[in-house]
Amino acid sequence: MDGGQVDIHLSDDPFDCWRIDVSTAPLLVTLCKVSLLLSDDPH
User: Structure pTM?
Assistant: First the structure.
């Protein structure tokens, strides 16, 4: 509370939400060089 006013309201309903659009978000891939080969991060 700030000056008697509530700053945020959180719902108890887990379905009371909205989705974030990630269709234009970048995709990051980690590569490791082992000798002459490249291996992607297994995590």
Answer: 0.31
